[in-house]
Amino acid sequence: MLRDIKSYPLVLKNCLIAGLTVFSSLALSQPATAPRAEAIYFGGSILTMAGDTPRYAEAVAIRNGKIINVGSKAAALQLRDERTRMVNLAGKTLLPGFIDAHGHTWMTGFQKLSANLLPPPDGRASDIPTLLSLLKEWQSKNPVAIDKVGWIIGFGYDDSQLAEKRHPTAADLDQVSTEIPIVIIHQSSHLASMNHKALELAGITSASPNPAGGVIRRLADGRTPDGVLEEMAFFAPMFKVLASFDQNASEKIALAGADYYAQFGFTTAQEGRASKQITQTWHKLADEGKLKIDIAAYPDLQAESTFMSEAGTKKTYRNHFRIAGVKLSLDGSPQGKTAWLSEPYVHVPLGQPADYRGYPAIPKSDDLQSLVNQAFNNNWQVLAHTNGDAAADALINAVAKAEKRYGKGDRRTVMIHAQTVREDQLDRMKQLGIVPSFFSMHTYYWGDWHRDETLGKDRALRISPTQSALKRGMWFTEHHDAPVALPSSIMILHTTVNRTTRSGAVLGEDQRVSPYIALKSITDWASRQYFEEKSKGTISVGKLADLVILDKDPLKVDPATIRDIKVLETIKEGKTIFSQN
Question: pTM of the entire structure?
């Protein structure tokens, strides 16, 4: 009939056309059945994180794990029926779920299950006698774990916070046991100390040379190992210990880490230097439907090059897991004095020359270039651990050469930590599209130590130079590097905004940023780092219903009190995965 419309009288023809236009408009704007909201959140501060300035909404509606409406409460109520769950925030704050820009989820679970040797306020290890007591206490409470693993393991000691201002030695740890091997891991995760039994099992003797990219610390005779191991001297024997864990133990550790992240409001976490074994553990847990949050793995390219060539990367998650890229480690830690600097440390480690600057973890520049080239050739995103500015130079130069060879693209190479990055280096990073992921938590945990012991005042004031990046129009992310620090989203915010040290001093006032910018670094901008800005990072229609509820709005409290804010609930794709209630 409509094909014959030309033969109709003019008046009837116009009526038909008008009717069809109205009908088409209604069909487009009013679906036959409006989508029912499974839940509507209202009654609090709903901070969307969309845009360069704060934007609040009255209500958010979700369905099938996604956000279907953001705006007025009246509009959200149009999507309500008798089955809709109405969630009154009662003045609390709703935000996008936090995104872990860099951390080690499996090792965080390992830390949670090991003896807690963290100093106050996160633990009780303020001196060596207390540390030894904590190890003995853990030993008495975990006989089954020791029987299965064969080791006593502690995590989180910090020589800068111990009263003795030194590392516990093999002789100290022998006071706990001479028969059971003991390893205690430094809070930086770049050093450790072993008792004599552990050194024996690791094959470390007076005749052992320092490995490439590592140091075996010695007694005054210059030969006898004192128990303290740096970098590759520690990683090699520790990997053997971890490899001895059976699959069941590995899975328990992984899930403990993921659960811990959820308690701090994270809906996306990172496995930031994954081995093949740990990657396969996450794969298995995903296949079995046991993951509650998204886990993005970055296998260690130097150690797992063959595995990566077989596995490759994925752009999307399968049951909350994907291999997202690769990790490179170019140096160590500034607090442990193993970061690779261009200028000497203020006070060098015992036995080192006055011009000691730390050292590279990949000593040969050709080896580093080959690894970066491999990643660029395969279009794998690179996350590169670079604490010292000499390490930053090495990464920037390698990326520049790789880009010249493989062409410019949207690769979003990430400089992890970028703690001592210089102004001229930020200029080059912007040009190359290298994303800085800062570690502003250092301002609190090691700020005094950096100012007085490692870097000196001028360099310490500029660690994690967030404001310098902003002035260049660069976006950045912030991280906790758990288990180096607890996976605390709130401490990330607090330290990025305040930059106060343990003693209360302000470290780099001109590098402070607003609470909104700090939030961007673990929501919107963190989603960009992962290439996930279309599905995460803001409370926007069409994105995943990854949400977190806080007891207070970080934008509406005294900045000095941000650290007191509590995570009340974590929601992944519309489902509560953690609640304080």
Answer: 0.87
